[in-house]
């Protein structure tokens, strides 16, 4: 199996400048290759340029501009061109399937934050000695950079990536390792119901509170964004000191919320995996759930619109995004696979409206957000607990059907 490791780097001032230049030059290579593809299609009788053609030009590009392109790893530049090729492949796939295509776009320096090295030892070298507390990673054109390695890397290193997040620099490793030993069986099964009031509720009646990391810093983030909005949009190298500080403050707040959200997701998922052998959850279509409501034209007033609850839906969408359900479910699935646990997603329809006692399904069974009261048999319970019970039962039925 392949496992990823992410470590904080401690570059010197000179290495920080070199890392920034590496990102800038790879971004320029990406944008130049994209422009070449656009021009060839528009002006050369709709000629399509592939990765192989652009990769063959790298040798000449490096020789023509050794200061900008010749100093970096040839393999990392090939990886950048493959990144563009994958973007075009995804674009054509969406066109054929009838989805919104989303043509590949040019990347600004602020939006190009990763450089990949396809093989350890080719343009980069991970140097981790077991008895040496100082871990370093070497990058061509940058040098040996100190790494804060907070845990051991198990397995053979396959790829190495450099990633910038705000002012911080990270090295991301992928390692090939044997399948770990599964955790001992607990004999416990559970269903979970994702929510806003509580982050999740399980079928045993336990509630995990919603930390609402984004809401906690919303006032500070709003003030920082208002300060940033007062500056005109200019190129990165044209920004004033105040502009840069305002930009970095917004990025710092967003980064902190993201790390807090990831930490909460990892801890919650780990607790579920350690305590239960089987976990069922709702197969949530988060993108559809967070769509803006369609406008309602006013038939009596041409060009006018009726109220459609857009303001309330916008608040709900912010809460859904703040909860981070998609990230949590991805982490839960990954941890369960490593631990030998089973995770099944079930259809979420009517899970909070179906009575777990008599099976009667009706909208009236849930009079409020928290209360469940069956209009048929009179069963009363917390609505989220009822939803988790129904999710568990549907998951067990699906598991038995798959085993059969």
Which descriptors apply to this entry?
single chain; 404 residues; alpha+beta; 7-stranded antiparallel sheet; 5-stranded mixed sheet; 12 helices; 44% helix; 20% strand
How would you describe the overall organization of this protein?
This protein is of the alpha+beta class. The protein folds into two domains: 2-176, no CATH class; 189-403, no CATH class. 44% of the residues lie in helices and 20% in strands. The protein is built from twelve helices and 16 strands. It has a seven-stranded antiparallel sheet. It has a five-stranded mixed sheet with strand order 10-9-8-11-14. Strand 12 (296-297) and strand 13 form a beta hairpin. The chain is globular, with a radius of gyration of 26 Å. It starts with a strand and ends with a helix. The mean pLDDT is 91.
Briefly summarize what is shown.
By secondary structure, this protein is of the alpha+beta class. 44% of the residues lie in helices and 20% in strands.
Order of helices and strands: EHHHHHEEEEEEEEEHHHEHEEHHEEEH
Taking all Cα atoms into account, the compactness measure Rg is 26 Å
Specify the structural class. alpha+beta
- For the secondary structure, the number of strands is 16
Helix content: 40-55%
What is the first-to-last residue Cα distance?
Answer: 28 Å
Task: Write the SSE topology.
Layout: E1 2-10, H1 13-43, H2 51-56, H3 58-64, H4 66-70, H5 74-97, E2 114-117, E3 124-127, E4 135-139, E5 143-148, E6 156-165, E7 168-176, E8 189-194, E9 198-202, E10 207-209, H6 213-216, H7 218-229, H8 241-275, E11 278-282, H9 286-289, E12 296-297, E13 305-306, H10 310-323, H11 325-339, E14 342-346, E15 371-373, E16 380-382, H12 383-403
Parallel strand pairs: 8-11, 11-14
Antiparallel strand pairs: 1-5, 1-7, 2-6, 3-4, 4-5, 6-7, 8-9, 9-10, 12-13, 15-16
Helix pairs in contact: 1-5, 7-8, 8-11
